[in-house]
Amino acid sequence: MSKYNIEPLVTLSHYEMPLNLAREYNGWTNRKIIGFYENYVRTVFKRYKDKVKYWLTFNEVNSVLHAPFMLGGIATPMEGLSKQELYQAVHHELVGSASITKIGHEIKPEFKIGCMVLAMPAYGMTATPLDQLAVPEFENQNYLFSDIHARGKYPNYIKYYFKDNGIEIQFSPGDDEILKNTVNFISFSYAMSEATAHNPEDYKVVKGNILGGVENPYLEKSEWGWAIDPIGLRLVLDDFYDSYQLPLFIVENGPDGPTVEDDYRMITFKNT
């Protein structure tokens, strides 16, 4: 890469929790994983500090809510995983991410360390207030992660969600201070948008999309059933920058070259 003047961007954790940590510790549900993660990342930072400037702490960090084993190494089946356990694992990940951001900047202040989220804007199916209220209820589950990475604290909306759902996050001494180690930039993947409604059972349910949901009749779909929505990418960019005023990095959106047969992503990118 150096030979061809390619600037590397390294994702430190990309869906590859060591199997032993999943089996013996149940992944990020166990706070001990933070220490293991710190040791691993510290080693990588020191080894490549003169070759890599840009880093991501996790790939699509918010996807742990939807695929706990894939992202978080959480061996408990989804149907047996309580919201308390899941959001406690989220807390451990967020503390781990902030901690290695601090470690990285101590090793080399010039490092640029970012978070990476799966961006998925939502539209209300109608202009009724209840359908519009369903939009932030859906999106907040994703923005929680970028909010904490960029602002260094839990937003009020998730505190109310925790209260309403009987979730009590266990903070260890110093967690609040660690979370204040915010990122230098926001990166994200974008593949589709979602439609949502107060009563989703009143509408046709889409079989594609990553999270399923209500079918948006105004959008074409790919062969996988994913909504093709280039305007959604523009909305994500506007929303992220308006919210955080940090540099944005689209790190996954599909190639635009003629040699790759991926018409869906090429159409999305070219129409943006």
From TrEMBL:
One of its GO terms (cellular component) is cytosol. Its EC number is 3.2.1.86. Gene3D superfamilies: Glycosidases. Belongs to the glycosyl hydrolase 1 family. This is Putative beta-glucosidase. The lineage of its organism: Bacteria, Bacillati, Bacillota, Bacilli, Lactobacillales. One of its GO terms (biological process) is carbohydrate catabolic process. GO terms for molecular function: 6-phospho-beta-glucosidase activity. Keywords: Glycosidase, Hydrolase. The keyword Hydrolase applies. InterPro entries: GH (IPR017853), Glyco_hydro_1 (IPR001360). Signal peptide: none annotated.
